[in-house]
Design goal:
Layout lengths: L3 H5 L2 H28 L5 H26 L3 E5 L2 H7 L5 E5 L6 H11 L6 E6 L8 H7 L3 E3 L3 H16 L6 E4 L8 H14 L13 H10 L5 E9 L8 H5 L5 E10 L7 H25 L13 E3 L5 H25 L4 H25 L13
Parallel strand pairs: 1-7, 2-5, 2-6, 3-4, 3-5
Antiparallel strand pairs: 1-8, 6-7
Helix pairs in contact: 2-3, 2-6, 2-12, 2-13, 3-5, 3-12, 7-9, 9-11, 12-13
Length: 382
């Protein structure tokens, strides 16, 4: 009998996952490109409906790694009446803490459950759009790519928000106002900046950068009905919440609190909207502090208690990943092993180089998601 624990930690299995994931991403990207240039100019609505499934087919392979491969569980804290009425049924603007390596994946994990995963979008650096396959996928999926120049970015935000709000099906657009992931060094720079600007001092978050939010707000007000305030934490465990842990089949337990805030509750004046964001992060900080101290968002935060429920797994991420494994691995492994055992040094070298390339690509992708120990926080205008 195969030991699943040993299987999940096998480098060969990880390599197979990398081959399937990146090869399917390239195939899906080319399909997107054909439709982007051949269909979108004539029927934008149909293009976006088809692209939902192409994007979903790629994203949910990582959801599979979270849900099925590692067995990660998620406790969701949402008011039940709002969950039934609004979630997955309207455009949403998401504000999330950026504290963990896999916070984005936990968001995808949840979004798969409410069937908006294929229409999840985010703000990203412009350079990412050139990185295959994920950058290409995001480019063809109309993510908001920013150049870090406010004059240029304002026009980009205006255009992309207009495009996103025109989608026929619900879209969830993610903003992480902290701008970069939390580290101790970045936190020190954040506190110095907050003191200089007389802003709230946060214990577990970086001071939010509000300009992107206030700029976006003026363009999505009246089009996106609600802001979703998301707070993520993980139960204390010997297993760190990282992509490596999930790849090795080690589960973590995520806690996801989501509060739906009607957009009309946010002030229209830019300075007041900026203060609203800072006040929101004060509450988020209290919730995170309460969770760290007690394992509960509400005990010490003063936030109204919401009873959790467990996010249920959907079969589609499993079926999709198995399907791509058959489609990609069957021909590729057949030819690659044929080259390895051909008895010719050149062919052996080619096959070994291909395996090495996929392995390096996997490690580089994991490395990109890890928390950087360097810090550019505070070197740019907020």
């Amino acid at each position: 009998m195969i030991d699943l624990k040993v299987l999940k930690q096998s480098t060969l299995v990880h390599l197979c996952f990398a081959i399937s994931y990146f090869t399917s991403g390239i195939i899906l990207s080319f399909m997107q490109a054909i439709l982007y240039f051949g269909l979108k100019p004539f029927n934008k609505t149909l293009y976006r409906k088809i692209n939902y499934y192409l994007s979903y087919s790629f994203y949910c392979q990582l959801v599979f790694m979270s849900e099925w491969w590692s067995g990660t569980t998620m406790s969701v804290y949402i008011k039940k009446d709002e969950y039934d009425k609004f979630y997955g049924k309207e455009h949403g603007y998401l504000i999330m803490n950026h504290s963990f390596e896999i916070d984005w994946l936990m968001g995808w994990h949840f979004c798969d459950g409410i069937q908006v995963l294929g229409n999840c979008k985010a703000y990203a650096k412009k350079s990412i759009q050139y990185l295959p396959p994920i950058g290409w996928m995001w480019k063809f999926s109309e993510f908001v790519f920013l150049e870090r120049s406010f004059d240029k970015d304002k026009e980009i935000i205006k255009h992309q928000i207009s495009e996103i709000c025109d989608y026929p099906d619900p879209v969830w657009l993610l903003l992480t106002p902290e701008g970069t992931r939390y580290t101790k060094k970045k936190h020190e720079a954040s506190l110095n900046f907050a003191r200089e600007k007389n802003l709230p001092l946060l214990k577990h978050h970086l001071t939010p950068r509000t300009r992107g939010f206030t700029t976006s707000l003026q363009f999505f007000r009246g089009k996106i009905p609600a802001i979703y305030n998301i707070q993520l934490a993980f139960s204390e465990s010997k297993t760190p919440p990282t992509l490596t842990s999930l790849l090795y089949g080690k589960p973590v337990h995520a806690h996801l609190y989501i509060e739906r805030i009607p957009v009309e509750k946010v002030p229209e004046v830019e300075a007041e909207a900026s203060k609203w964001m800072h006040d929101l992060f004060v509450v988020k900080d209290k919730m995170q502090d309460s969770f760290i101290n007690t394992g509960d968002f509400f005990s010490q935060s003063g936030v109204e208690r919401v009873e959790p429920f467990k996010a249920s797994r959907r079969i589609y991420s499993l079926l999709n990943t198995l399907g791509w494994a058959v489609v990609t691995l069957t021909p590729m492994l057949y030819y690659l092993f044929g080259l390895l055992f051909s008895g010719k040094l050149l062919y052996f070298s080619i096959a070994a180089a291909v395996f090495a390339a996929f392995y390096i690509l996997l490690q580089k992708s994991i490395g990109m998601s890890k928390i950087s120990q360097g810090s550019s926080y505070g070197t740019e205008k907020k």
